[in-house]
Each structure stands twice: as structure tokens, then as C-alpha cells.
Amino acid sequence: MSDDIAISETPFADLTKVEFSADHYPVMVTDVLESFSVFREKKALRYFDGTFGRGGHLRAVLVHFPQAKAVAMDQDLRAIEACKVMFKTEVEAERIRIIHGNFSEFKEKNFGSFDMMLLDLGVSSPQLDNAERGFSFYHDGPLDMRMNQNQGITAEYIVNTASEQELNDLFKVYGEIHRPFRVVRAIVHDRKTKAFQSTKELAGLIERVDGWRHKGHHPATQYFMALRLRVNSELEVLQSTLPEMMRALTPGGRLAVISFHSLEDRIVKNLFKHDKQLGQQTHKKVILPAQEECDKNPRSRSAKLRVFERNVQDELKEF
User: Fold this and answer.
1) In a 10 Å sphere around its CB, with 0-12 CB exposed, 13-18 middle and 19+ buried, how is residue 106 labelled?
2) Res 222 pLDDT > 80
3) If we measure between CA atoms, which residue out of 292, 289, 286, 298 comes closest to residue 29?
4) Mean pLDDT of the chain
């Protein structure tokens, strides 16, 4: 039996009232709003957005929940700059607090408790479309892939310094590539002559060695995803921080997580099922985007949504 469902649009999630950024339409925003619809009548709400991006989900939440105050966080400096411009009025009215950083810092920031929380994992459209960030094999740019431009190692460093065994392990574990050996051997061979510096150089090698096995699926897709996950320690951050966020929910509060990778979704699924005394998933099966959304926004096709609800009778303890 398939472990997924699709939620149809509901009258509550009327997106005609929401103005989204021209370069980014939020994934599964209707489903996220519907998941939070139980709070419509609550007089005061606190909302945490740990991956602000270009503010699509945040904008929709503020419109549909005028009683909510928000903390918006993102590790991308450009996202923070955009947030300050787009939400200038809300910031001045102290309705939004903007924080630059990774949601891994959630506990140390001591934000307090929240009724509604959201993590929209993965890469945003502006990041993918900006060649300088190095996330996409369709745009030639530096092999960077850092979401926080001020921190961490780059994909270029990994590709040019990791051993052959380390690269094989990286692509098998993070990219779920069963046999990366030929590509890795070619990388190790070619970098002796010239270090890999651009996305085009790496994608070109992968395309040459692996070839196009599936129409419409670039052979570099899983290799680039593996590097991105490793550069930003995305799986490790999710594994360690999600439990802290779950404990920071108010009784009856909900935490929604949108993932785009099977490894991410597996972590979310297992953590949400781990502590039955704390709470449970609102749906037994993962929520998938409606076909209409996939047709409008192809990048939503791999999205999966899971929602955790803290037990109503649970007392809020210090976390």
C-alpha cells in the first residue's frame, strides 16, 4: 500500500488574497495553511518559519492568521535582505522578528514556544536560478552550494580534496547512487590535471561518463544533491534540531515539514513517530501536492509534507 495521500484544496486556503514574490511560488502552501486551520479562532498565535526563503509561506500565514506574530529565520543573507524589504511594515509593527542563521540554532536562540512552525527544506527557486550560488547544473557557476555564504566548506573543496573512497561513500549515502565508481574514478583522474571549479565542468564529466539514462532526468541530479546535503550538513541538522522544535510546540501546536528528498522524509517520519507521549502526526500517511500544483510548479513534484501535533493535554516543559 502506498504511504502517501494528496489533500485537495479547501475554501479556507484562499490564495487570491496573498501576494507572492514574482520569482518564487511557495510549495504546498494550501496544504500548510489547511494544516494550521485549527488555530483560526485562537486569539493570539506565535509562528516560527525556520527556512524563510522568499517569504511565500510567511506571507500566506500572516494573511490568513491576522492574530499571529512571527519569527522568520534563514541562513541565506539574500533571503534576509529580501525579507527586510518585503515585510518592512510588519517588522516596524513588531509583528515579525527577522533572524539570520540556521534553524540548528533554534535552541540556543531561546525563541520560546510556538503554536505553528514550518520547515521548508531544500533549495529555493532564487537559489537554484542564481548561477553564482552553484546549486544548479543547468547554470554555469562556481562549485559553491553553501546556503550560508559566510560559513562552511564549498562543494569545490570536497570534489577536489576528498579521497576516492570518501567520494564513493558520499554519493552512495547522500545521493543514493548505487554505483558511482566510474564517475568518482573520472573525477579523481581529471582533478590531477586541473581542479574542478565550475558546475559546468562537473556536470559535463558526469554526463560524459554516466550518460542520459532517463529522459528528462539529468545524470548529475543525484550527485549535485549529495554534495549540497553534505556541504550544508542538512541531514545532520534536521536529525538533531527537529526534536527540539517538537518540544517547543505549545500543547496542541503543530509543526509542518516539507521535504524533497527520501532521506529527509525518512528522518522526519521516524522522529514524528518516535515519541508518542509528546504527540503524533496529524495524518497517517505523507501528504503530497495536488496534481494541479505539480502542473503549475514542476519543482513541487518531489515535495512531501508531514505535520506533527503536540498532545493537547501535555504540559509545556522547558526545552
Assistant:
1) buried
2) yes
3) 289
4) 86
Least confident range from 21-25, 93-97, 161-165, 223-227: namely 21-25
The HSE-up count of residue 207 (CA atoms within 13 Å, CB side) is 12
CA angle 25–129–180, rounded 5-degree value: 110
> What are the pLDDT digits (tens) for 225-260?
999 999 988 999 999 999 999 999 999 999 999 999
Q: Among residues 132, 139, 138, 135, which one has the least CA distance to residue 124?
A: 135
Q: CA–CA separation, 258 vs 49, rounded Å?
A: 12
Q: What is the CA radius of gyration of the chain?
A: 20
Reading phi first (left if > 0) and then psi (alpha if -120 to 50, else beta), residue 243 is in alpha
Domains of the chain plus CATH, in order, are 4-123+235-310 (3.40.50.150), 149-231 (1.10.150.170)
Length of the chain: 319
pTM of the model: 0.85
Percent of residues in the chain assigned helix, strand, coil, to nearest 5: 45, 15, 40
**Amino acid, res. 170:** L
Locate 214 and state its grid cell: 532517463
Q: For the residues 299-303, what does the mean pLDDT come to?
A: 87
Cα distances from 234 to residues 45, 112, 182, 247, 252, in angstroms, run: 28, 23, 26, 20, 27
With 0-12 / 13-18 / 19 or more C-beta atoms within 10 angstroms meaning exposed / middle / buried, residue 178 is exposed
Strand duo 45-49 + 114-120: pairing: parallel
